[in-house]
Amino acid sequence: MTSAEGGRGERGRASAWEAAWEVLAPVTDLVTPMAVRVAASLGLSDLMGDDVVSVEELARRSVTDVDALGRVLRHLVCHGVFVEPEPGRFAVNEPAALLAAGHPSGMRARLDLDGFGGRMDLAFTGLLHTVRTGEPAWETVFGAPFWRYLALNSQISGSFDAMMADGADYVADAAEGYDWSGARHVVDVGGGAGALLAEVLRANPGVRATLVDLPDTVERGRRYLAERGLETRCEFAGQSFFEPLPTGGDVYVLRRVLHDWGDDDARWVLRRCAEAAGRHGRVVVIETPGGSGDDPAMFAEMNLRMLVLSGGRERAAEDYVAIATEAGLDVAGVHTTPLGHVILDCTPPGD
Q: Three-class SS of residue 169?
C-alpha cells in the first residue's frame, strides 16, 4: 500500500480512499472474519482457558508460528476479540469465550476451517463462478460436487451431520410439531445421523423406524441411535433417496432435505416418497419457513448459501405446497411450530 492509498491527505482531510473505506469496510473486510475462524480452528480460547498466556507458550500449545500467531491475536484484540493485558501475553474476554468448544452456541464448530462450517464459508470464494453460471461454487472450490465431496471426506461429512443435529431444542421442536400417535413405522428420508428419529422414537414407544441416507451417514446414525438404546427399533438403508425407497412405512418424513435441492430434484424426491408410501401412507415435509418475512436478511443469506453450496434454495411455505402438489401429492395441512418450522402433511393421490 502506498502513502497515497492510505492515511489522510493534507491538513488532516480524509483521502477519497479512506472515506470510501469507512463506508465499505464493514461489508468488505475479509481479514477479521478469517482471523476469527483461525482462532476457532486452533482452539485458542480453550488453550488459554482462564489464564494469561504468552504468545510463545500459546504457539507451542497450538503448534503454530510465534510471529504469525502474534499478528493474528493483535489484530483480533484491536477488534475486541481477546485482550492483551501485558505486551506479548493474551487472555480470553467475553467475545473470545464464545469460541470455546464447550460454549452452548457451538460457534467454534461452526467457524472451524477444518470442519464443515468453515468449509461452507470458504465455498464463497467461488461466488463469482456461481453468479456467472448459476451453478454451485462448491465443486469449483473443493474439486467435487457438494454431496460427493461429503461422501469422500468422512471428517467433513461427520462434521456436517453434527451440525445438522445441533440444537436439541430445535430438533425437539421439529419432532413435536407433528402428531406421530397414529404412526406405526416412520421412514426418515435423508435423516442424517438420526437426530430427528431419536426424538420421535423416544417420545413414541410403539413406533418403529427406518433411517435412509448415504451408507457412511447411516452407519453414524446406527451408532447414534445405539448410544441411546434405540437401534433395535430401527432399520437402516444406506442409499440415495433418488433411488426407490424402502416400502412398508406409513409416514415418510423429509426434514430440511428439500431446501438442499433445486425444484426438479425436490419434486423427484417427493415422488419417491409418494411411491414408497403407497395409497394409505403419508409424506411429511419439515422445513424452515424461509419466506415468512420475519427476517428477510436471514432468508436472503440462506438462499444464497444454498445456491453456492449445492444448488438448493430456501422457499416460502406456499412454495413447498406448490412443489408437493406438482409432485402429485395432496397437501392435507400446513402449520408452523413455535420455533419456526413449517410442516406439510401430505397424502399420495387416491388416499
A: helix
Q: Which three cell numbers stand for residue 102?
A: 464447550
Which residue numbers in the chain have pLDDT < 50?
2-6, 291-292
DSSP 8-state code for residue 53: E
Identify whether the C-beta of residue 90 lies closer than 8 Å to the C-beta of residue 83: yes
SS3 105: coil
Which pLDDT score is estimated for 245? 97
Residue 5's pLDDT is what? 46
Q: How many CB atoms lie within 10 A of CB 232?
A: 8
Among candidate residues 340, 323, 240, the one with its CA nearest the CA of residue 283: 323
Contacts of 126 (CB under 8 A, 6+ apart): 137, 138, 140, 141, 308
Cell 425407497 belongs to residue: 245
d(CA 39, CA 161): 23
Position 21 scores a pLDDT of 84
pTM of the model: 0.84
Cell, residue 95:
467475545
Report the side by side order of strands in the sheet with 83-86.
Answer: 53-54, 89-91, 83-86
Alpha-carbon gap, residue 160 to 116, rounded angstroms: 5
211 forms bridges with which residues in the sheet? 188, 236
pLDDT in tens, 203-224: 999 999 999 999 989 999 999 9
Model confidence pLDDT, tens digit, residues 21-52? 889 988 889 999 999 999 999 999 999 999 99
Grid cell in block for residue 179: 402428531
CB 163, CB 118: distance < 8 Å = no
The residues carrying an active-site annotation are 259
The full length of the chain comes to: 351
Burial of 113 (0-12, 13-18, 19+ CB in 10 A): middle
Is the CB of residue 55 less than 8 Å from the CB of residue 64?
Answer: no
